[in-house]
Specification:
With about 230 residues, the protein is α+β, with helices and mostly antiparallel strands. The protein contains six helices and twelve strands.
């Protein structure tokens, strides 16, 4: 009898945790969203499928903007947003072809060469602004990502980067799977998006960083519209 009691105690996976593992799935989802929204900064790393294209992200985000890199169709470009000002830094190849808007003519090649390796100011009226700024907006990005679809349920305990987690699923995984930290605040640590739309890890919650404006000699301003738009 005693042995049974001892075994039962030893197998409690929520012992010594923040306690969210004992909550219903919907409450865990609510607490992890609140924790994410209240954190001043986060690093997002992984893949997102959007509009039929796969984007590999490595972004640091805070309440003022974001800084990092995005790779799509073999082209890598750097994104930096400080307040409302968005910059894109890429090579000439990206501006000719990678942005999906260049025509490939001599005029395009000449324009692209001027943008090679520079921080290009993206005008707010340009279609690229909305397309790229979403990757740098912590609130918008997390709100869109941290949504599980269908009926929520807990699906056991796991570990992510050495941290104990509770797994929450939507429709048994087809609606997405989220690993929530059982240590400290219940931050989301790993997300498998519904429909195979990418897998992301979240780290550095609350670890703030500074965003630096590029030097003037590193910057190109094209006014109201990018040359390839």
């Amino acid at each position: 009898m005693t042995g049974t009691v001892l075994t039962g105690c030893a197998e409690d996976p929520n012992e010594g945790t923040n306690g969210v593992g004992r909550l219903p799935a919907a409450k865990i989802q609510g607490k992890t969203r609140s924790a994410a929204e209240s954190a001043g900064a986060v690093r997002v790393h992984g893949n997102v499928v959007s509009g039929g294209r796969t984007y590999a992200l490595d972004m640091r985000l805070n309440d003022d903007g974001g800084d990092g890199s995005v790779t799509s169709k073999g082209a890598t470009f750097k994104l930096l947003r400080i307040g409302e000002q968005l910059y894109v830094k890429a090579d000439a190849e990206f501006w000719t072809h990678g942005s999906g808007q260049g025509g490939g003519g001599k005029a395009d090649a000449a324009a692209a060469s001027k943008l090679d390796g520079k921080f290009v100011k993206v005008p707010q009226g340009d279609p690229s602004y909305k397309k790229f700024s979403g990757f740098t907006d912590k609130g918008l990005l997390l709100d869109g990502l941290l949504t599980l679809h269908g009926t929520l349920a807990t699906d056991g305990h796991d570990e992510e980067a050495g941290v104990r987690t509770i797994r929450v699923t939507g429709d048994k995984g087809s609606g997405g799977t989220l690993e929530v930290s059982l240590e400290g605040k219940p931050y989301p640590l790993r997300l498998e998006r519904a429909g195979g739309a990418g897998t992301l890890t979240f780290s550095g919650w609350g670890e703030d960083f500074s965003l630096r404006e590029p030097e003037k000699n590193e910057t190109v301003d094209y006014g109201r519209q990018l040359p390839t738009s």
